[in-house]
Amino acid sequence: MSRTLTRSRQLQQRAEGFLPGGVDSPVRAFRAVGGDPPFVTRAEGAYLWDADGNRYLDFFGSWGPMILGHAFPPVVEAVCEAAARGTSFGASTAAEADLAELVTRCFPSVERLRFVSSGTEACMSAVRVARGFTGRNFVIKFEGCYHGHSDAMLVKAGSGVATFGIPGSAGVPVETAMHTLALPYNDLAAVEAAFEGHPGEIACVIVEPVVGNAGTIAPGAGYLQGLRELCTRHGALLILDEVMTGFRLSLGGAQELYGIKPDLTTLGKIIGGGLPCGAFGGRAEVMESLAPLGPVYQAGTLSGNPLAMAAGIATVGYLLEHPSIYAELEKTTAAIAEGVVAIAREAGVPMMMNRVGSMFTWFFTDRAVENFEDAATSDTAAFARFHRAMLDAGVWLPPSQYEAAFVGMQHGMVEVEATLEAARGALR
Ligand SMILES: *Cc1c(COP(=O)(O)O)cnc(C)c1O
């Protein structure tokens, strides 16, 4: 299939005159895989169309939200109806408690929650609440986990820096980063050592219960349970960042799947059905330290926005009414993810595949991937070639080795076959 991108290329050049890199979020620029990023004009079900009329099978689903597929009629209708009544009021509406009730039904650990407009805000605010509630400053996070782009969360461990974080981004003061301890994922001994090294100083542990932002990495047996026990023993709060996994791995996210009760949970992506929305919530006692009840400040002009609430209620409501979706997603995703691994094996291409539910990653490495260091052994040049070949064949994967791919409800057997066919050509 020959694909022209004349119009997309023009649109990218125009955008570069106004937006840094032509984008509003860096990965969209395709720097990691090369080639021209297609400009999207519309989407429906499992497919995207670009400005040159090319059609793509979508495996990134707006980076997670589109579990029901694009332009899903019940969601579109709910948003249109809400928009006709007004797009924002800055005053309370019934829809906020309606969506909150649905969320608490899915996540029993969430007794109180607050809506925000992104996953970044959800994580930033959850960490602030944890610090305010405990009166402690240090935060433990894990290498390769992403919790949005707030200053304190943009920290990876530097090679020589076991205890104090270094800024992962220019513009993050060392004074901020030094309170974030970045440890290897799936390593309980490292967490135990950090608690012992900072007695009474660690406010919380924040973790992607299944990592998606280093590519997909599952927690080892007993890992999440171990984090829960260490937090309890040391008086720190456990924050499960379920921005990606919430409503994705099951209705109740990873905490339902693995039977873990966190103190706080952060949500985003699916909860807004494709509109800007996030939430953080958990134990009532902890959440009630938020203003106006308590001393921890947090606010938002568009928080609980009526369009976002309408899309969220339509999406989460649909999932609640159709719980069998998850078994279907499991089957479709396994067929795609394992099918391509078999093709790679035949072609002699080293590939490790990690999958949990409908999120998965094909790592171009022969090493089992259990943490970021393992993921970083991937041949990213080979991934980039694979990405370009798949895109040319009409299959749009996330444009980086270190991202999870997603399957949605509208991916069926036709899409499984199309993906395997594309991969046969690409891996040759
Ligand atoms: C996407 C993501 C975030 C950030 O959410 P934004 O809406 O992009 O700000 C935080 N945590 C995890 C686990 C994510 O996947």
From TrEMBL:
- Quaternary structure and partners: Homodimer.
Q: Which pathway does the database say it acts in?
A: Porphyrin-containing compound metabolism; protoporphyrin-IX biosynthesis; 5-aminolevulinate from L-glutamyl-tRNA(Glu): step 2/2
What reaction is this protein's catalytic activity?
A: (S)-4-amino-5-oxopentanoate = 5-aminolevulinate
Q: Does the keyword Cytoplasm apply?
A: yes
Task: Please give the cofactor(s) recorded in the UniProt entry for this protein.
Answer: pyridoxal 5'-phosphate
Tree of life domain: Bacteria
- Protein known as: Glutamate-1-semialdehyde 2,1-aminomutase
Documented EC number(s)? 5.4.3.8
User: GO CC terms for this protein?
Assistant: cytoplasm
Record's SUPFAM superfamilies?
Answer: PLP-dependent transferases
The UniProt family comment states: Belongs to the class-III pyridoxal-phosphate-dependent aminotransferase family. HemL subfamily.
Q: Using the record's annotations, give every residue carrying the modification N6-(pyridoxal phosphate)lysine.
A: K269
What keywords would UniProt list here? Cytoplasm, Isomerase, Porphyrin biosynthesis, Pyridoxal phosphate
Q: Name one GO molecular function term.
A: pyridoxal phosphate binding
| GO BP | protoporphyrinogen IX biosynthetic process
